[in-house]
Amino acid sequence: MTAKGLHSAVRRLLTLVAALAVLVGAAATHAQTPPPPKFVYDKPPDVKLVEWKAGTKMGLLVTSGNSEITTFTFGGNVSRRDPWNKLQLEFNAAYARSSILIASDDNASGALDPGEIIRQTQTSANQWNLKARYDRFFTTNNSFYAAGLAAADQVAGKEFFGGGQIGYARQLHKDALWDASAEIGYDLSYEMLAPPTDTSTLVQSIRLYLGGNLRLHQTTALFANFETLLNMNPEKVPYADAPADNPGKYVPEFKDTRINAKVGLTTKLWRNVNFGFSFALKYDQNPAPRPAVKDGAGTEVPFAPGYVPFVDRLDTLTEASLIISFI
Question: pTM for the whole thing?
Answer without folding.
Answer: 0.78
